[in-house]
Structures are given as structure tokens and as C-alpha cells.
Amino acid sequence: MGLRKFKPVTPGTRFRVGASFTEITATKPEKSLVVSSKKSGGRNNTGKMTMRYMGGGHKKSYRLIDFKREKFDIPATVATVEYDPNRTARIALLHYADGEKRYIIAPEGLQVGQKVVSGDTATPEVGNTLKLANIPLGSIVHNVEIHPGRGAQLARSAGAYAQLAARDGKYATLKMPSGETRLILTACLATIGAVSNSDHANEVLGKAGRKRWLGRRPRTRPVAMNPVDHPMGGGEGRSSGGQPRSRNGMYSKGFKTRSLKKYSNRFIIEKRKK
């Protein structure tokens, strides 16, 4: 996995830095694990635009990803490592011993032909899924559950990982990708290793058109709008918009929006870095 710098043959490739895709071993997805995906264009069920700056983009098919890893003690072989247009990480196709096929988020270093397994009998090796109670302290993990059996919800994007810092009773202490330190039940599952494609953060699109291919339309600066369109609009010339805020008046740039009574506050030991 690495990056590829393009020669400045056109203005769009002059500063473009893209993925090399050297780790990809298959160009077509597993047909049984692909479903159609419909774009909303930012519109709700009545056709009203509720999310701005969405629309267009290349057509995609959705790959069904196994975030639960509940096939315990059944070994699987990594058949392919593939590109997924719906996420920043790479995905891996597993062929289980009982004949079933499933996609998982590919961790860094996972190779084709490698064996992976989930369950209490699994060893803490890259790609294996265990309960936090059975993972050695200090280990790097991803695809972490918040509630047992619900499926992985934390550390799923490219290059993300959490570190298992401590265990006390039925809770484990994890340091999250955001820098937050929080408690999670030791009965929750996590996968060993960091998520693949860690160089994604260093990619440079190179031109506005590539942003449009991803389904993102141009974003208008609030200070360029009229007063009727945004609280920061209006004024003569390059006058600033005053206190930074959202379109509905909610202050931004440091304003705390998290509820003081949120149930999960008691599980957070140290808040994320500003």
C-alpha cells in the first residue's frame, strides 16, 4: 500500500497524489455480496433538499460487510483484497471452511491465503476477532463494538485503530482514534490490527472534477451569501460574518453541542483532544 505521484501532463494531474492500488488482487466484487445502491441527492422522501452540496457522482454498488464476525471458531481463508467505493479502507473476501463467503474490513498487513478466525479460541493475530477480555493489553485493535452483538462501530475508516490500555472488572479502557479514552465492556468484540490504506489521508484529488465524481457539489461560503440565506451573509465588500455559526444560528468553532446528560458520558475517562 502506497501513494502514486502523477506527472503534470494536465493541470489536474500536476498536484495529484493518488493510491497505488498495489494491494488490490481482484477487479470485480463477489456477486452474491453486492446489492444496488440508490443515491438521494440530499433529498428526503418528499423531494425537499435537506442536505446541501450532495448530488451527482459515479454509480456505485454496495458491498455487504460483515461487522459482527459471529461465525465463531470457523476458520476462513483470505481470497482477495479489493477496492470498495463506499469506504476509505480496503475490504477482504473471506472463504469460510463451511463454504460461506463474507467481506470484512481489511486490516493492515492482511495477505491473500492467510487464515483468520473469530471467537474465544482465536489467537491475537492480525485479522482475528476476539473479545476485549481475551486481547493482550497494549494491543492495537479496530472494528470495535460498543454493545455486545451489535457489530463493530468504532475505528473502521482507513488507518484507524484503538489501543487497549487497561482492564478493570467487566470494563476495558480503550484509547480511541480521536484521542478520547473511554470504557467499553470486555464482552465486546474487536479485531486485531489497524485498518488498511493508512495513506488515504495523504491523497490529493488534484482537481474539482474528482470531487464531483465522489458525489460532492461545490460548497458556498456563508460570508458570500445574502442575509436571507445565512446568519453570516450580507455586508459590503469583504466584511466578515461576525461570530461563526451554522445556517440555523448554532455557534461553531468550539461550541460544545454534546448533551450534558448523555448516557455515555460516564464511560468517557478523558475527552478527545481539541
TrEMBL record:
<comment type="subunit">
    <text>Part of the 50S ribosomal subunit. Forms a bridge to the 30S subunit in the 70S ribosome.</text>
</comment>
<feature type="region of interest" description="Disordered">
    <location>
        <begin position="32"/>
        <end position="53"/>
    </location>
</feature>
<dbReference type="InterPro" id="IPR014726">
    <property type="entry name" value="Ribosomal_uL2_dom3"/>
</dbReference>
<dbReference type="Pfam" id="PF00181">
    <property type="entry name" value="Ribosomal_L2_N"/>
</dbReference>
<keyword id="KW-0694">RNA-binding</keyword>
<dbReference type="InterPro" id="IPR022666">
    <property type="entry name" value="Ribosomal_uL2_RNA-bd_dom"/>
</dbReference>
<dbReference type="InterPro" id="IPR012340">
    <property type="entry name" value="NA-bd_OB-fold"/>
</dbReference>
<dbReference type="Pfam" id="PF03947">
    <property type="entry name" value="Ribosomal_L2_C"/>
</dbReference>
<dbReference type="GO" id="GO:0015934">
    <property type="term" value="C:large ribosomal subunit"/>
</dbReference>
<dbReference type="GO" id="GO:0002181">
    <property type="term" value="P:cytoplasmic translation"/>
</dbReference>
<feature type="region of interest" description="Disordered">
    <location>
        <begin position="221"/>
        <end position="255"/>
    </location>
</feature>
<dbReference type="GO" id="GO:0019843">
    <property type="term" value="F:rRNA binding"/>
</dbReference>
<dbReference type="InterPro" id="IPR014722">
    <property type="entry name" value="Rib_uL2_dom2"/>
</dbReference>
<dbReference type="InterPro" id="IPR022669">
    <property type="entry name" value="Ribosomal_uL2_C"/>
</dbReference>
<dbReference type="InterPro" id="IPR008991">
    <property type="entry name" value="Translation_prot_SH3-like_sf"/>
</dbReference>
<comment type="similarity">
    <text>Belongs to the universal ribosomal protein uL2 family.</text>
</comment>
<keyword id="KW-0687">Ribonucleoprotein</keyword>
<keyword id="KW-0689">Ribosomal protein</keyword>
<dbReference type="InterPro" id="IPR005880">
    <property type="entry name" value="Ribosomal_uL2_bac/org-type"/>
</dbReference>
<comment type="function">
    <text>One of the primary rRNA binding proteins. Required for association of the 30S and 50S subunits to form the 70S ribosome, for tRNA binding and peptide bond formation. It has been suggested to have peptidyltransferase activity; this is somewhat controversial. Makes several contacts with the 16S rRNA in the 70S ribosome.</text>
</comment>
<keyword id="KW-0699">rRNA-binding</keyword>
<protein>
    <recommendedName>
        <fullName>Large ribosomal subunit protein uL2</fullName>
    </recommendedName>
</protein>
<dbReference type="InterPro" id="IPR002171">
    <property type="entry name" value="Ribosomal_uL2"/>
</dbReference>
<dbReference type="GO" id="GO:0016740">
    <property type="term" value="F:transferase activity"/>
</dbReference>
<dbReference type="GO" id="GO:0003735">
    <property type="term" value="F:structural constituent of ribosome"/>
</dbReference>
<feature type="domain" description="Large ribosomal subunit protein uL2 C-terminal">
    <location>
        <begin position="124"/>
        <end position="251"/>
    </location>
</feature>
<feature type="domain" description="Large ribosomal subunit protein uL2 RNA-binding">
    <location>
        <begin position="42"/>
        <end position="118"/>
    </location>
</feature>
